[in-house]
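Box 3.1. Reading complex inputs
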Amino acid sequence: MKHRPFEDWLLDDQPLDPAQKRELDAHLRACEVCSAIAESNLALRSARVIAPVPGFTARWQERLVLARRAQRRRTLLGTLFFSLGGLILLAFLAGPILVSLIGSPAEWISAMVHAALFIYTAILAITEAGSVIFRVLPGFVPPFVWLVLLSALSGLGLLWSVSIWRLMRRPQGVTS
Amino acid sequence: MNEEQTWILQAKNGSDEAFTYIVETYQTPVYNLCYRMLGEPEAAEDAAQETFLRAYQHIHRYDLQRPFATWLLSIAAHYCIDRLRRRKLPIFSVDEDEESTYEIPDAKALHPEAETVHGEQQEQIHAMVQSLDSTDRAAIVMRYWYDFSEIEIADALNLTVSAVKSRLHRARKQLGKLLQETSTPAHVERSPYETPAF
């Protein structure tokens, strides 16, 4: 039997005009294949809506509590895992140094004192040298050189201020 | 903005009370979709609960311009499709133990259809739908139980409209064939073209 176009009308759920409906009805009376499709469409449209057992919301709230608890547990375990991992890595990397420090404390204390003394004497020496230069240098440099140096420094300062001001005027996060 | 949108907005802002209202309102459509997809009341209960949990966790991503029912049922459908695929290919899940700690209330009471079905037609329809491919099944359920348009189904299932049309076409053909094989005339319990689940 010829099923077209009736089968397509049914399978594509096409809207039909009264004449097409009459044609389809006549075809359905004679065709088992198309009649089964029409019947299954009708059966689906008439199928009941199933509701859950009463108390669904209360059960959902219980589940939410369980899910939150599980989430907290996962977060705690994750934090613990990463902290422990970090500590183990740190111990592995810093282990040899720690062992030597714990093994001979006198040695590293004297090394620390030496380093502190070295830094202190170096700062003193630099300060002394700086003060000598500041006292001696002005006599060697002619006044016009000072004038040129000061002008150059002022120009650079002005350029820097203008650049900063222009950058501040551009709205942040806007690309064009 | 209507009352429902107000609740949704409040839920987006973190109100548990507002989300509870959403669960109350949408429990039947979500449960029905899960039941039609998975075929078993216990699995449907679990899937519906999980759907609301996922919706709760991701409600900040919900776009207020989109129909809420489409968004929610889309979560349910995707969850059920994944679950059906996992049934075919059993995979060990780390979360399995956590999920099993949730107790499903009374397994016998979760067979609402078995209690109230008067004829075998409902079971026949149900069994026929179960024989479909999972995505085809989701499309059929959305079309016939929720009156979703092809565009809405495409939106919910992340498919193109032509893919939805082709899936519906194929599924209808398969259902017709199945019905012809069983040859029991379908019984009408709900008038055709009425808006079903909402």
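In summary: Residues 36 and 126 of chain B are 7 Å apart (CA to CA).
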